[in-house]
Design goal:
The protein is α/β, with parallel strands linked by helices. It contains 10 helices and 6 strands.
């Protein structure tokens, strides 16, 4: 008696089910065209690099004979790197601010390239925005070498450009980075789309208090997606629990009416 073998069918993981559901919803819910652009924070929003930063900060402080707590580490989430480096110097790191920044970026970038820690739902949402013709850019306080490593791991063109911490004179919570990003995207938007770029039709996604403060003060519609540190309720921004299952149409519904 012959037997027939069948390939085993593995159940979908939770992440795969979410991605499949998101794709189906995105196909069924086209955009109206109101959403023009999304400006993405990086660390903690697009990628979960904060554990890498915290680990490398602790290793550096301990190598200089100091101690580094989770509370201290969380206090640096979303801050400009120059500020973070100055705090590490106060904790006992006997290096210049520039040398601290260079050391941390090199270490975190190497770890990210070896194992890219994407935040749940972020790549799927970015892909949906791209498919819908919504322009996207990266606005981060990390410096360009790390930001470029993250962008290089995505399909080409999904993030049009980077505004990084080494491109501004004042880091988050100052709005300069978002103002620069909006101005850059505005440069050719009317030529590309037939209408000017408007702040009230653009969204910034952030995971920290410095980040949402910077985005909101720039005039962008701001969505807080807390991760490592809580973000208090504030009329200047809206909140999401996470990006898993979120599609472009969900963001468009967050625009003012």
């Amino acid at each position: 008696m012959s037997s027939t073998s069948y390939a085993s069918v593995q159940p979908l993981t939770s992440a795969a089910r979410t991605a499949t559901t998101s794709s189906a919803r995105a196909a069924a819910e086209p955009l109206s065209g109101e959403l023009q652009a999304v400006f993405w924070d990086m660390d903690g929003t697009l990628v979960d690099t904060e554990p890498y930063w915290i680990s490398e900060e602790r290793a550096l402080v301990e190598a200089h004979g100091g101690t580094w707590s989770q509370e201290q580490a969380h206090g640096l989430v979303g801050q400009a790197l120059s500020y973070s480096a100055s705090v590490l110097r106060e904790a006992g790191v006997d290096m210049t601010v520039r040398d601290i920044i260079d050391h941390l970026i090199t270490r975190v970038a190497a770890r990210a390239v070896a194992e890219m820690p994407w935040r749940p739902g972020a790549r799927e949402l970015l892909a949906d925005l791209n498919a819908a013709g919504v322009r996207c850019a990266l606005v981060t306080m990390s410096e360009k070498p790390l930001a470029e490593a993250i962008v290089a791991a995505l399909p080409e063109g999904q993030l049009e450009f980077i505004v990084s911490g080494d491109m501004v004179s004042r880091g988050k919570p100052d709005p300069e980075a978002y103002q620069q990003a909006f101005s850059r995207m505005s440069g050719d938007h009317e030529q590309r789309s037939g209408e000017p770029l408007r702040l009230d039709r653009c969204i910034a996604i952030e995971d920290s208090v410095p980040g949402v403060t910077a985005a909101a003060d720039s005039g962008l519609v701001t969505i807080a997606v807390p991760h490592y540190t809580p973000i208090p309720a504030d009329p200047r921004w809206q909140s999401l629990d996470g990006l898993g299952g979120v599609i472009a149409a969900d963001l468009e519904r967050r625009l003012p009416r």
